[in-house]
Design goal:
Layout (H helix, E strand, L loop, with lengths): L1 H12 L1 H14 L1 H17 L7 H21 L3 E5 L14 E5 H9 L12 E6 L2 E6 H11 L1
Antiparallel strand pairs: 1-2, 3-4
Helix pairs in contact: 3-4
Length: 148
């Protein structure tokens, strides 16, 4: 307990230095930071499993960094896409990731049933010509099934 209090006191006393250190780390390890944040969000939102092997995590961070670098080089937005979507049971692991342009990713999203909400989602919002519709994910899925 004393060590934790002392550490907290150090952080408060050296706030500017610690923020500067954290910002430098995030900038130098942007791909890894993005990958870890994506993993946390996947686990929180979908309860999906995430990679835990250190070598795989490093390779995944490199893939996110590759997307960042390609965006900087070409001026075209690149993103890391989950081949099997997280909302459909996909895992946040290396073999389920690919680098795509943002437009390719959007096209993939809009041309398959993979963009449908997960039945456990509470509500979805649909924007259609200046109107906003909010309904439960289950109701939306029933409508989609009826239209097929």
């Amino acid at each position: 307990m004393k060590k934790t209090k002392a550490l907290g006191k150090y952080y408060r006393k050296n706030r500017k230095h610690m923020l500067s250190y954290q910002n430098d780390y995030n900038e130098q390890n942007r791909g890894y930071v993005y990958m870890m944040n994506a993993g946390r969000m996947a686990k929180k939102k979908y309860g999906t499993e995430c990679a835990t092997d250190e070598a795989e995590l490093k390779a995944m961070g490199e893939m996110y960094q590759k997307a960042i670098d390609k965006t900087r080089e070409t001026g075209t937005q690149y993103v890391v896409d989950h081949i099997h979507p997280l909302c459909r049971g996909g895992k946040h692991e290396l073999k389920n990731l690919q680098v795509l342009t943002a437009s390719e990713n959007a096209r993939k999203y809009h041309t398959s049933d993979k963009h449908l909400p997960h039945p456990d989602d509470k509500n979805i919002t649909i924007n259609i010509e200046n109107a906003t519709i909010v309904m439960s994910a289950n109701d939306y899925l029933k409508i989609v099934e009826e239209d097929k």
